[in-house]
Design a protein that fits this description.
Layout: H1 16-20, H2 22-32, H3 34-56, H4 61-72, H5 76-86, H6 89-98, H7 115-152, E1 157-162, E2 165-171, H8 172-194, E3 198-199, H9 209-212, H10 218-227, E4 232-233, H11 244-270, E5 278-279, H12 299-311, H13 315-320, H14 339-358, E6 361-362, H15 364-372, H16 383-392, H17 398-412, H18 416-421, H19 424-437, H20 446-451, H21 460-477
Parallel strand pairs: 3-4
Antiparallel strand pairs: 1-2, 5-6
Helix pairs in contact: 2-3, 2-7, 2-14, 3-4, 3-6, 3-7, 3-10, 5-6, 7-8, 7-14, 7-21, 8-11, 8-21, 11-12, 11-14, 12-14, 16-17, 16-19
Length: about 475
């Protein structure tokens, strides 16, 4: 077959990313390339011949070995050349395979099968393989990196943000533990769904018409055929395997993809000049801008988000492939081929995000300064505990009292703690309640609490450490 310079390829996956992510590209290619697609169909056809021989009691170790060796010799170029004549991909493959297998087994090639018995089964085989051998190891590597980061920064103070505004204190580890939890659950679901993909040998309309002419128990033949590929039968087939098995797996891929894109957005925003809490790794020779030498752009996080934008909409076609007229139409024949592109794009994003987390640095000094309001943003993040403590003393409009104190802090450009000292009675009441609750040694110590907002972080440290430990163990249990 004609070979093409990679720079003449059309898809960025096959030139730009095949170079920059060669190891990943090679591992994906082994499962979802066109060569792998043909090889999996060959494997399915060989499994069918072996199933026929098993039912007839004529399978020997030597014959099984000869069949597997014949399948390994199939050249995709030869199949493509035959398809130019037949205009049918599976018939072309069958014609080529018949010339390779032991002559006495040639009549059994494709016997009782329709094309989709091979195509859908081979697709399930490939998607099971690429999920278990490539997707899940990549995701688990990322998850473990997130666990490490969340645990390492579990006690690093950070200001929480809602609506893009400073809220109340958390920790950096707690912020990343969100993604540990969300992604961890999605990984476990992908693991579960990868074991549920199905195949079929039920014929042109799913009613086992053809195999009923060959064997007494068509479902037993189907079971033997699929067992050779590590699969089970779809509960009800038309000409197609029920599409929901694969659809659910792909949708969970997209759930994980969205979680990773959300993480990329958060990391990118925390690297803004005016925030400056995090920074991606940046090599000595790396350039951030072609014209501004000072730039250190968060381009890897942006790249992950960009990949998500490119591939997330493909889910629409996954849903559309769920629908087929009666026992089958061909409206999924082209669209389904692009599942391979989607899986590749997803894996590229996961791999890139892992590299981001591996090299991610935290500016702990800047994190603390932002939290304390020392970088130009009013530090009213302790208004919440002040309001709650004041309300606990019996002040019914405590929220309004504290709100006005925050306005004073903003107007006079002073800290919330400093504004609070201007309201002696309020501070006294709050201090008394804090002493009563054992939060401070005495009421006079209350001000020190409001001067150090990092002390008010609830269960952030505990949650970060607990979730990191939990999902680290779960990932290792699933290996």
């Amino acid at each position: 077959m004609e070979t093409r310079n990679i720079f003449q390829n059309i898809s960025p996956i096959d030139h730009r990313y095949s170079i920059s992510e060669k190891a990943l590209f090679d591992s994906l290619s082994a499962w979802i390339s066109e060569e792998a697609s043909i090889a999996s169909c060959v494997k399915a056809e060989i499994a069918l011949v072996i199933a026929h021989l098993s039912v007839r009691g004529s399978l020997t170790p030597a014959l099984k070995s000869a069949l597997e060796e014949a399948g390994a010799k199939i050249d995709p170029a030869e199949v493509y050349a035959e398809e130019e004549k037949t205009k049918h991909n599976i018939r072309a493959l069958v014609n080529v395979l018949k010339t390779k297998v032991p002559p006495e087994t040639a009549p059994l090639v494709h016997l009782g099968a329709t094309s989709v018995d091979i195509l859908d089964t081979a697709l399930s085989y490939r998607m099971t393989g690429v999920t278990r051998e490539v997707v899940l190891p990549l995701l688990k590597k990322l998850e473990l990196l997130l666990c490490d980061f969340a645990e390492r920064e579990a006690e690093t103070p950070q200001v929480g943000r809602t609506h893009g505004q400073h809220a109340v204190p958390i920790t950096l580890g707690f912020a990343l533990a969100e993604y540990v939890s969300r992604l961890g659950k999605s990984i476990l679901e992908i693991q579960r769904l990868s074991g549920q993909l199905k195949g079929k040998l039920a014929g042109a309309v799913g009613a086992y018409n053809a195999t009923s002419m060959i064997v007494k128990d068509p479902e037993e033949l189907e079971r033997l055929y699929l067992a050779g590929l590590g699969l089970e039968a779809s509960e009800h087939s038309t000409q197609l395997v029920e599409p929901e098995y694969l659809l659910r797996l792909l949708l969970e891929f997209n759930v994980a993809f969205g979680i990773i894109a959300n993480l990329a957005d958060d990391l990118r925003n925390l690297q803004r000049s005016e925030i400056g809490e995090l920074r991606e790794g940046f090599s000595a020779d790396q350039v951030g801008s072609s014209t501004m030498p000072q730039k250190r752009n968060p381009w890897n996080s942006e790249h992950v988000k960009s990949l998500w934008k490119a591939f997330m909409p493909r889910v629409t076609s996954f849903f559309m492939d769920q629908i087929s007229e009666h026992q089958r139409d061909l409206s999924n024949s082209a669209s389904q081929r692009f599942i391979a592109d989607y899986a590749a794009g997803f894996c590229l994003a996961v791999s890139r995000m892992a590299s981001v987390i591996r090299g991610l640095g935290a500016d702990r000094e800047r994190l603390l300064r932002n939290l304390r309001g020392e970088t130009g943003i009013p530090g009213g993040v302790l208004a919440e505990p002040a309001y709650i403590l004041l309300a606990e003393t019996g002040v019914s409009d405590a929220h309004e009292v504290i709100r006005k104190i925050t306005l004073t802090a903003e107007k006079e450009n002073i800290s919330f703690a400093a504004a609070l000292t201007k309201e002696g009675d309020v501070l006294s009441r709050i201090g008394g309640k804090m002493a009563e609750l054992g939060l401070v040694a005495s009421a006079s110590d209350a001000l020190s609490f409001f001067e150090k907002p990092e002390r008010y972080c609830g269960l952030a440290v505990k949650k970060a450490k607990t979730l990191s430990a939990k999902y680290r163990q779960l990932m290792r249990n699933e290996e």
